[in-house]
Specification:
Keywords: ATP-binding, Nucleotide-binding, Transport. GO terms for molecular function: ATP binding; ATP hydrolysis activity. Belongs to the ABC transporter superfamily. The longest helix has 14 residues. The chain has a 6-stranded mixed β-sheet with strand order 6-7-8-3-9-10, with helices on both faces. The protein has a 4-stranded antiparallel β-sheet with strand order 2-1-4-5, covered by helices on one side. It is of the alpha/beta class. The structure holds adenosine-5'-triphosphate (ATP). Adenosine-5'-triphosphate (ATP) binds next to strand 2 and helix 1.
Length: 257
């Protein structure tokens, strides 16, 4: 079952082409989005979150063509999004902030208090519910970002570098949460931490210079690395797969005569 369908996607930022000719078909599960700095991960996530627009191509989310402005509202209520730079109101308490986002998502008022408590509990912030957001550490703010993204039990969850700033214990717990959410939802997680992909993702998409360089499972990406033999670059199978897949994508194909 496809919940996200992208075809021929092109995204430009002035003269820079951030994404070009991207085709993707995603369904429920946890999808890792990897790629070097500037590969286009954030540009892709922003278009899927309906906060940025495609220059060309078609993007369908939950069966709705989000190129049509009138279709975006319905999709946003069923979507969760953690941006790379996450804006919040420092004077709000943790509970107030998550409840505010629930309200923005058009959740039924009677459902909000329990949904907020559950989201805070899932990210390990249950005991900080009454704290002001401005008193949280950087990693706790990141967890608050994850809580606001999941409060409406989204069918599509888009997380842009969610583990940046989390301590190792929290990262391990977060991976378990991702696996749990991915049973029902389509979760797309951009990250530079390939270990997170190996541990939590069912599929991986590797972007390079705005194009899809590789798609497969974490195991198949590791196999690409193992096939390079002892000269592969990286400390783990999946790291070697990442570098090998990038190299293969960048190697020009010899024209056939
Ligand atoms: N607002 C902008 N104005 C101009 N160029 C931009 C803008 N945002 C992104 N770009 C360019 O688009 C390309 C893709 O950037 P994007 O942020 O999507 O990559 P990324 O894979 O998320 O990178 P990172 O891993 O560094 O977060 C890069 O060349 C970047 O310089």
């Amino acid at each position: 079952m496809s919940t996200i369908r992208v075809s021929g996607l092109r995204v430009r930022h002035r003269r820079t082409v951030a994404l070009d000719a991207v085709d993707l078909d995603l369904g429920p599960g946890v999808h890792g989005l990897l790629g070097p700095n500037g590969a286009g991960k954030t540009s892709l996530i922003r278009v899927l979150a309906t906060v940025a627009q495609a220059s060309a191509g078609r993007v369908e989310i939950l069966g709705e063509d989000v190129g049509e402005p009138a279709r975006r509202g319905a999709v946003r209520a069923r979507l969760g999004y953690l941006p790379q730079e996450f804006g919040y109101y420092p004077g709000f308490t943790v509970r107030e902030f998550v409840a505010y986002v629930a309200w923005l998502k058009d959740m039924t008022a009677a459902d909000v208090p329990a949904a907020v408590e559950l989201a805070l509990h899932r990210v390990g912030l249950g005991d900080r519910a009454d704290a002001k957001v401005k008193t949280l550490s950087g990693g706790m703010v990141r967890r608050l970002g994850i809580a606001q993204a999941i409060v409406n039990e989204p069918e599509i969850l888009l997380l842009d570098e969610p583990t940046a700033g989390l301590d190792p214990e929290q990262r391990v717990e977060f991976r378990a949460l991702l696996r749990e959410l991915g049973v029902r939802a389509t979760v797309l997680v951009s990250t530079h931490l390939v270990e997170d992909v190996a541990a939590a993702c069912t599929e991986v998409t590797l972007l390079d210079a705005g194009r899809v360089a590789y798609r497969g499972t974490p195991a198949s990406l590791s196999a690409v690395g193992e096939a390079t033999g002892p000269d592969g670059i990286g400390d783990s199978g999946i790291e070697r797969g990442y570098t090998a897949a990038l190299r293969a994508h960048r190697t020009p194909v010899e024209p056939t005569r």
